[in-house]
Amino acid sequence: MSHAADTVHPVDPELAALLTAEESLQRDTIRLIASENYASAAVIAATGTVLTNKYSEGYPTRRYYEGQQNIDRIEQLCIDRAKSLFGAGHANVQPYSGSPANLAIYFAFLKPGDTVMGMALPAGGHLTHGWGVSITGTYFRPVQYGVRKDTGRIDLDEVRDLAKKERPKLLFAGGTAIPRTIDFAAFAEIAREVGAVFAADIAHIAGLVAAGVHPSPVPVADVVSTTTHKTLRGPRGGMLLCRETHQKAIDKAVFPGLQGGPHNHTTAGIAVALHEAAQPAFKAYAQQIVANARALAAALVEHGFDVITGGTDNHLVLVDVTGKGTAGKPLARALDAAGIVTNYNTVPFDPRKPFDPSGIRLGTPAVTSRGMREAEMKQIAAWMDAIAQAPADAALQARIRGEVKELTSRFPAPGL
Ligand code: DSN
To answer: What is the pTM of this model?
Structure first.
């Protein structure tokens, strides 16, 4: 039992048992969900502190509550570290997560009914970039771009033509299932041509950007939004980075525009994560994330999987599994039974429904945090192939589950 479960146990044994079960699950499985990771023990410890007891509406030195002697310093430390790591003029570290961070951008720059242009969700975008079921696609006028059918990649000429025709007030780049490098400079140029605010959502790739493994949008974007718990390996949270000229608008939009008191315990965890991400070891970690994703994609191609765009430039691999005679959901379920955790996902131009799509999405941030490398990626691809060939074979899943447990036992997970 962990220290946390140990502490909870005398008060709430039921919850402690669930916490212990989740610790085992995270320890004994191969976690390939592209948006997940293992926060370090220090990040988890900072997040679970007395800082959760404090209310601090406002910003450092300008609060609506007294008793902020330490909270002000913690938030300022976090802001300074975010600015330094990403080379930003200003950082707001209060958004509760990525969706509120993106909503703050709308509140800072748009009026209801204004046009927002973002990548369509089924093409790899995010709900908050103007997808229909999101508040951003109902209170604003959404225009969506996608990827080319022949390449699976964004066509910047198409984006430019659409932007010129629709004249968005806000242009988003970024998403949740984009396996290739995003040309933020080209997006910025398009935004400039049509007079749009350019927002880069780097939630998935923030750790890669911080390490210089993906080009940074910070010099070219009006505002950059991110979560803090994916490749950046912090606690669940969000951040906005912008030029100093937009500081006032962004800060006002987060508080009092959208949120009340910041989650100070999360701010502390983010501060620790930013400190960790500034160390040389983090650069090597980010490089290995990409090397592992490339190795995983290449091995899957060798096993006959249809990897969207043929490979990856980042942490993420998107696979159309229908060519293997299965579909995303049954395969994800079969893999989960074998201890390989993924999510089913639409692929571009998916003829199937989002709740039963053609693909699965894989990512290497978590397995790389455990120290796994290219050889382990090859093994994982081989297991995936075996399971895809017989997704209903419970005995096969049980055998691989045992092998997965043996492999994971050799790669201790941070924070557990
Ligand atoms: N839910 C996140 C992901 O999995 O990509 C995006 O919000």
So the answer is: 0.98
